[in-house]
């Protein structure tokens, strides 16, 4: 199944003019002692104002919660984050502790006090203060006094919104201290994307159970790709299709990527898993699966959960169970820190989890499968706070990897878009592949994850429609319109993939993501009859690829110490990656495989990147980045200088 959490991404333009709508004014020009808060991109207010329906002014007594983020020494932080991440810089690897990072680049105590005093003077209640920012609450009338904006009500897409209709301003004497303000525009909270099952037959279901689901031929679940030609099905592309394995085991994936030969297990490293909700069965599921498949279980103390007060515990989707098991599959002796944020403080559980990890340095490597997109349901002004945290993580020697998304080169209003946080220039964006693992767990071929499908006709004699059929999911990739090209991509990313003007291209790397040839996982969820129980299914999506790559990074940490922001070192090793092909085995031949899905048989054709709005060429490309991990990549970090203490 494609275990994916996503608020679909739309990266907006760098700036946008407010459109005149009922009840909306242009920038307030009658406040000479106030300064607009610098903005990196559109806020969701802009889209609500442009496209929403005005329904009247907001009641001044309406309660709200807002967040004011501190700037600190933003330029110094960015400079040092680059220096400690660049192998060519003499300060490379001179990481700092969280305490030294805050002392050196955080806001001074007197500036924190000045911002806090201003907010209190407006009548807002100060609910929390940290080096990251201030959380305030109060009425709309008090927020108007504090931030110089009026408020109005709108509806957009059936969702009601409260929107700040004027540019947000702050007093001139604290303007240099304020990085961003969020929470003023609010609507119905965005919902995580519902995971989609691949429908492939779970390995722990009996043939009798499968027969009750469908009268069509049943996938025999071969152990390896190519073991079982589907001779009982119509041919595809002039030859029999192959029955797909019903999920690879952890050992198969380790062997295929060359990890077994490294002798590394992740011992001594800690992998952080970002959770937007707490899956109470995650540890039990991971250990049950491991025990039943000959894998090492998570020993006492090897797994820790850090759950914020007010965090959601309602999720039984298995997203984070998959993240934990995927990371454990690649680095079975690494510690795992499952960090679950809440909306209580910063209004965003993902930001809250990241802040917790960075503030306490809870991990060496972090995987994020939650994508927060610039939609009307999410406040992109918070991107500035995210970027500051990612730079602090780089200074502390923490590696962040984020899934690139499952929507290909998604089009929004006719423009290709990329998702966030994976498009941040301070994280490693992980794209997805379709991986065929053959006999003796050999790496047969690996192609861009971009599939199309067709179903077996009712008479069982043909595919309907003709293959390849309908477009399905695909790895996310493309070029950001918000971030310029980072230094580490210069000279590696071809001009044809860099955009115009040149922007941040994603993904950086890729790993197994196709849910039809995914990693077998065990989880507690609702079964076909609506009862909760333990099942095993093949998981996928780039939310599988991200923790798989995080596991690889943990092996590197074991081999050489903290890696920190990994991209400069990874791009310097571009030739140590396995180049992913556009067609299986790099030939023009098309290969298809069959799975049982939704009560029938489905034929899946991989590598159909063009219809997913993805671009591909040998070398770096915005479908698979540098490629997938290899033993050579991991071994290339052995013997590199150990990181030294910061100055």
TrEMBL record:
<dbReference type="GO" id="GO:0006508">
    <property type="term" value="P:proteolysis"/>
</dbReference>
<protein>
    <submittedName>
        <fullName>Serine protease</fullName>
    </submittedName>
</protein>
<keyword id="KW-0732">Signal</keyword>
<feature type="signal peptide">
    <location>
        <begin position="1"/>
        <end position="29"/>
    </location>
</feature>
<keyword id="KW-0865">Zymogen</keyword>
<feature type="domain" description="Peptidase S53">
    <location>
        <begin position="247"/>
        <end position="641"/>
    </location>
</feature>
<keyword id="KW-0106">Calcium</keyword>
<dbReference type="InterPro" id="IPR030400">
    <property type="entry name" value="Sedolisin_dom"/>
</dbReference>
<keyword id="KW-0378">Hydrolase</keyword>
<feature type="region of interest" description="Disordered">
    <location>
        <begin position="189"/>
        <end position="226"/>
    </location>
</feature>
<keyword id="KW-0645">Protease</keyword>
<dbReference type="InterPro" id="IPR000209">
    <property type="entry name" value="Peptidase_S8/S53_dom"/>
</dbReference>
<dbReference type="InterPro" id="IPR036852">
    <property type="entry name" value="Peptidase_S8/S53_dom_sf"/>
</dbReference>
<dbReference type="Pfam" id="PF09286">
    <property type="entry name" value="Pro-kuma_activ"/>
</dbReference>
<dbReference type="InterPro" id="IPR023828">
    <property type="entry name" value="Peptidase_S8_Ser-AS"/>
</dbReference>
<dbReference type="Pfam" id="PF00082">
    <property type="entry name" value="Peptidase_S8"/>
</dbReference>
<dbReference type="GO" id="GO:0004252">
    <property type="term" value="F:serine-type endopeptidase activity"/>
</dbReference>
<dbReference type="GO" id="GO:0008240">
    <property type="term" value="F:tripeptidyl-peptidase activity"/>
</dbReference>
<dbReference type="GO" id="GO:0046872">
    <property type="term" value="F:metal ion binding"/>
</dbReference>
<dbReference type="InterPro" id="IPR050819">
    <property type="entry name" value="Tripeptidyl-peptidase_I"/>
</dbReference>
<keyword id="KW-0479">Metal-binding</keyword>
<dbReference type="InterPro" id="IPR015366">
    <property type="entry name" value="S53_propep"/>
</dbReference>
<keyword id="KW-0720">Serine protease</keyword>
């Amino acid at each position: 199944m494609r275990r994916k959490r996503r608020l679909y991404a739309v990266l907006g333009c760098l700036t946008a003019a407010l459109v005149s709508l009922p009840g909306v004014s242009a920038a307030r020009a009658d406040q000479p002692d106030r300064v607009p808060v610098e903005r990196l991109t559109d806020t969701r207010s802009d889209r609500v104002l442009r496209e929403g329906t005005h329904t009247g002014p907001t009641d001044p007594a309406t309660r709200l919660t807002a967040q004011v983020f501190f700037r600190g020494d933003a330029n110094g932080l960015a400079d040092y984050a680059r220096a400690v991440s660049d192998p060519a810089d003499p300060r490379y690897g001179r990481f700092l502790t969280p305490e030294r990072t805050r002392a050196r680049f955080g806001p001074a105590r007197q500036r924190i006090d000045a911002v806090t005093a201003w907010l209190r003077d407006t009548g807002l209640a100060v609910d929390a203060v940290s080096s990251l920012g201030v959380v305030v609450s109060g009425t709309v009338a008090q927020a108007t006094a504090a931030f110089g904006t009026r408020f109005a009500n709108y509806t957009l897409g059936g969702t009601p919104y409260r929107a700040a209709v004027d540019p947000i301003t702050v007093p001139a004497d604290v303007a240099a201290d304020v990085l961003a303000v969020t929470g003023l525009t609010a609507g119905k909270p965005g919902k995580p994307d519902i995971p989609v099952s691949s429908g492939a037959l779970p390995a722990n279901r009996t043939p009798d159970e499968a027969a009750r689901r469908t009268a069509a031929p049943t996938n025999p679940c071969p152990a390896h790709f190519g073991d079982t030609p589907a001779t009982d099905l119509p041919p595809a592309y002039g030859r029999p299709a192959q029955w797909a394995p019903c999920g690879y085991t952890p050992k198969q994936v380790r062997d295929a990527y060359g990890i077994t030969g490294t002798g590394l297990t992740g011992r001594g490293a800690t992998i952080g898993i970002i959770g937007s909700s707490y899956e109470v069965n995650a540890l039990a599921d991971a250990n049950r699966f491991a025990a039943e498949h000959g894998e090492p279980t998570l020993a006492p103390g090897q797994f820790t959960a850090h759950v914020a007060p007010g965090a959601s515990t309602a999720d039984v989707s298995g997203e984070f169970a998959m993240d934990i098991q995927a990371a454990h599959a690649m680095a079975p002796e690494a510690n795992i820190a499952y960090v679950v944020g809440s909306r209580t403080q910063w209004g965003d559980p993902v930001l809250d989890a990241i802040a917790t990890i960075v503030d306490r340095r809870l991990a060496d490597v972090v995987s994020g499968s939650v994508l927060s997109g610039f939609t009307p349901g999410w406040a992109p002004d918070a991107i500035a706070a995210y970027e500051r945290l990612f730079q602090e993580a780089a200074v502390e020697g923490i590696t962040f990897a984020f899934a690139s998304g499952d929507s290909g080169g998604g089009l929004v209003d006719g423009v290709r878009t990329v998702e966030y946080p994976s498009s941040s220039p301070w994280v490693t964006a992980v794209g997805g592949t379709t991986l065929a693992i053959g006999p003796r767990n050999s790496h047969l071929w690996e192609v861009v994850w971009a599939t199309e499908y067709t179903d077996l006709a009712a008479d069982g004699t043909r595919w309907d429609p003709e293959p390849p059929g309908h477009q399905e999911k695909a790895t996310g990739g493309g070029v950001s319109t918000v971030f310029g090209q980072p230094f580490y991509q210069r000279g590696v990313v071809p001009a044809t993939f860099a955009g115009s003007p040149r922007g941040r291209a994603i993904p950086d790397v890729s790993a197994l993501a196709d849910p039809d040839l995914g990693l077998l996982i065990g989880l507690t969820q609702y079964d076909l009859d609506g009862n909760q129980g333990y099942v095993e299914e093949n998981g996928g999506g780039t939310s599988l690829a991200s923790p798989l790559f995080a596991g690889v990074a943990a092996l590197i940490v074991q081999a050489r110490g903290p890696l920190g922001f990994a991209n400069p070192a990874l791009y310097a090793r571009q030739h140590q990656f396995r180049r992913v092909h556009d067609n299986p085995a790099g030939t023009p031949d098309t290969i298809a495989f069959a799975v049982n899905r939704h009560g029938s048989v489905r034929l899946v054709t991989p590598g159909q990147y063009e219809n997913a709005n993805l671009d591909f060429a040998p070398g770096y490309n915005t479908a698979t980045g540098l490629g997938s991990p290899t033993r050579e990549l991991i071994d290339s970090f052995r013997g590199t200088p150990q990181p030294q203490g910061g100055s």
